[in-house]
Every structure is written in C-alpha cells, then in structure tokens.
C-alpha cells in the first residue's frame, strides 16, 4: 500500500536538495545520488516512489542547480570532469547527517545511478552509518578519469552494510573486467550480504526511462525496481 507523500526543494548548509517523504516523516531514509541528469524529473520520480513505500528520500544535487529539466545532457556531461570526489563526498555526508538529524530518520541508506552508483559504493565504504547500499550500473570506467581520486573498488570492499548492485552486460562505459573487480570486492567482505544482478544485453543507464525504447532496458528495470524497493524497505 502506498502512502501519501510530501515533496519540497530545500537547502542544507547551502546545498540544494530535493525531499520526498511520507506525510509526517519516517524513521527510515535513503540518500539518492543521481546520474548525469542531476535532480531532473526521472530522479524526482524515483524519490517519490521510494517515499510512497514509507521511506524518506533526500536527493543530492551534483551540479548545484542545472539538471536535465533545463540543461542539455551534452552540457551536463561536460560538467562531470569538474566533480571532485572529496567535495562530492563531503556534500553527500552533510545530507546524510541531515537525514539522520533534522529529518528524524533513525537509519538511512544510499542509492545511486551511474555516477551516483559509484559514489554510493564509496560513501558506503567510508561511512558505516549507512544502513544499505544500492548501486545501479555504477560508472567505474576501465580508464580512471583524473577527477576519480577515490578508489571505488577499494571502498566497495569496506562496506559493512547489505549491498545490491545491478550491472548491464552491454555496458559501454564499464567493462566486464571492472564489474568482476567490484563483484570480487563485494563477495570478499566478511560482513554484509551482497545481492548482485547481471542483465545480459541491457545497456548503461538502463534504469532511466529515456532508455526504455530499447525493450531489454525496460525489462531490466521492470525486474529490478520492485526488488530494489523491497530491499530498501
């Protein structure tokens, strides 16, 4: 049964964020780390779907304003090299603090897509307050960009919480060798279960509805999303 929700734009320590939560709040929360779209329509829809299950959703704004609502994907992609790992993780930690503080959540997890999927794994390894980690097609490329100063694979191995990771086998940005390293890091942990999905022929970013014109992407999302909502709950 879905719940009535309330949504708002807010500022946390000068950081833009989007909040969707059950009316009156909840004890459980999720920090949402978007893909290149920023806080665009798709990510807001996911936040609202999570809130409708009874979980407070707070969305990080990677680009401090621009999103797919008002900026082309090409222009947003051009901003990605300017994302500094240390700065981004500090911002995400401040939002996690807000979930566990002013928003009244007793526990909170993190979910990310693409670039946000990578950050979700890193944050989960850095901050053991995180209750669970969901990484949709995390962007851990074969050649490490200069601004990727934190080792996502090493941090993945440090996560103590339950983890759910989705990998599309036709991912054009993340080679199978990188997925194998992430999988080994997860399965080598001594604490925290790992749920790992592999979707043959699905493409990078398959969760985004703009990619659902390709049936295999739509099918992968339709199979994974209900399980993600159950995992979060």
UniProtKB/TrEMBL annotation:
InterPro entries: AB_hydrolase_fold (IPR029058), Dienelactn_hydro (IPR002925), Dienelactone_hydrolase-like (IPR051049)
Source organism, top-level taxon: Bacteria
Dienelactone hydrolase domain mapped to chain residues: 16-232
A molecular function GO annotation: hydrolase activity
Swiss-Prot/TrEMBL keywords: Hydrolase
Protein name: Dienelactone hydrolase family protein
UniProt source species: Amycolatopsis thermalba
